[in-house]
Write a structure and sequence with these properties.
- Three copies of one chain form a homotrimer.
- Chain A has 191 residues and is an all-alpha fold.
- The first copy, chain A, has one domain.
- Chain A is built from eight helices and no strands.
- In chain A, helix 1 packs across helix 2, helix 1 packs parallel to helix 4 and helix 5 packs parallel to helix 7.
- Chain A is globular and about 45 Å long.
- In chain A, 59% of the residues are buried.
């Protein structure tokens, strides 16, 4: 299992936690938790794979992702009521998931030979569309629309950092690290 | 025309009725009825076909589905004002449509050789995404989010029943029947 | 660059203006403007290309579209506060963009050899889904749902006009012109 796949798994897990926490605010049943967790965790990557016409959508090629998202949902289902502030937890986990998802999106597009404007778009699509679908379906004001929070901005800057670092040192791990740090730094600084 | 195609046609018709009834609550014009009916009726199956990368999306391969959804919309346009409770009718028709769509989604994925976690997901995607799109676009609280109603749960249980029965008796019609009964039973029992 | 590509570019630009104006009503930051502008401008055409399984989604094949939508977003970001009525501007620009997008959608589907019900659907999908995504994401009541405004109706009538004119004179430019005039006439007349 390579770096991209590992990061993808991590972002799926963390995004699924945020999805399940929103499901918990909506007081859904356990399958509702799983449904919203999967939508949040795999929505962005699914859009990316469909748009790039990859051979297979990542979670259809490898259903481990479905299991990981489902596990996160079940975990939250049995513990969310113990959290003091679910909204605060959602926002911080979401920042972490976005920071992981940006380099994944850019990396997948790069491995398919896409040009740099497409790399930028795929970083944003992978990072933003899952959380956006979560908020739209659950009737919450999308996190991405809150003006003072640098959300799309953080994702775009992270994707740009990834591309720049890769141009200079041609190292995928360093490029991914730069993208994650820039995205998380900007997003966390604005919360 | 095989069993899958017939069931698909039936679920498209019934989902289109629910879409048109929601359009009627929103007091749209006749083309608005047709638009929402098509979105509801074909949204789930379209997502399924795009995700599974079928050779063609079902209603592009065979435009009869568009005609069926359009007919349902026109029917409702001229009769909906006579219904005493549109919301009640929507909920029951929706339960019926979901019960038909679950075995269709599982069956399509099975005929493409997908593994069982993908079968489960495709049952839920086919059954839930059309109604979800209808409710999100029309600014209604998504049926799927109402906690006491077993919505996603019914779809997931139906898909699981389909897989189990198919493992045991290897009969597609029996598996489809089991899925439909389990889904409708759980959903109707919770309304 | 052929007629279809030019029209597509024009509709992307005008739809992006409407998306950025809605972003301005929501007081987003500049990257939020770009995000909503891209979603609005390229959402309908992206759905069309994914549904028709074109070789590549148009803006991935040719990233100039991303640049055009981004430029429109930046333009609006620095000028929107000078507009007296953003809502009025949005509605008129949107009518223009829909009138351009309908013949583009029909034309793309025709060039892929689709049958006429699919041509009608692709005219509506290309013209309506971008604006619908814009309104759903930004929590605005979708323009398409406002009953007295002939929105989907205008798009459908325009697509039908395109098909009829093409049957009679077999000229793509004339068919596109007819579609644009019928769509804009109906939509503008109902505003």
């Amino acid at each position: 299992m390579n770096l991209l796949a590992l990061l993808d798994l991590a972002s799926v897990f963390v995004f699924a936690l945020t999805g399940a926490l929103v499901a918990s605010r909506q007081q859904l049943d356990i399958v509702g938790f799983i449904f919203i967790a999967c939508l949040t965790a795999m929505g962005g990557g699914t859009a990316r794979d469909v748009l790039l016409q990859r051979d297979e959508v990542f979670w259809i090629a490898n259903p481990i992702y479905v299991a990981v998202a489902g596990t996160a949902a079940v975990l939250v289902f049995f513990t969310a009521h113990k959290l003091e502030s679910r909204m605060r937890t959602i926002i911080w986990l979401d920042a972490l998931a976005v920071a992981i998802a940006v380099p994944v999106g850019v990396g997948v597009a790069r491995s398919l030979g896409a040009e740099w404007p497409v790399l930028l778009m795929m970083g944003m699509v992978t990072a933003c569309l899952g959380g956006l679908a979560r908020d739209v379906v659950c009737n919450e004001v999308p996190l991405i629309l809150k003006a003072r929070d640098l959300y799309a901005t953080a994702a775009l800057a992270g994707a740009a950092a990834n591309i720049l670092v890769y141009e200079v040192v041609a190292s995928r791990p360093f490029a991914a690290l730069a993208a994650g740090l820039v995205t998380f730094g900007l997003r966390a600084g604005s919360i």
